[in-house]
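User: My collaborator sent over this chain with a note saying "see what the structure looks like." That's all I know about it. Can you take a look?
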Amino acid sequence: MAHTGKPIGEMVIDLNLDPTQYNNAQKRILSEAKEATGSIDYQWKKLGGRTDAYFDAMEKSFKNSHMKIINTGFQTTETITRSYHLMNAKLAELDKDDTLISIK
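Assistant: Without extra context I'll predict from the sequence alone. Here is the result:
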């Protein structure tokens, strides 16, 4: 609650309803973020490594492939089991690759 008392000054507020400055600032921030991300990826490539985003995308890709095989409806239990083992082998290989890069 505001105190009632002696005023100490005046305040002027300029309210602009034009969203142009706000939109331009958003575009600038997005552009800077994309530039920073690209620069980080470039630095990882120079080092011979990969970002976590790469490993996450690869893991998702392996799991999606396995789920597509399951969801076709034409697969036998043996085929689904083989797909599952291949997916896990790829994930283990990816994890090993990630660990080796982290150790270097």
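A starting point for your reply to your collaborator: The longest helix spans residues 20-47.
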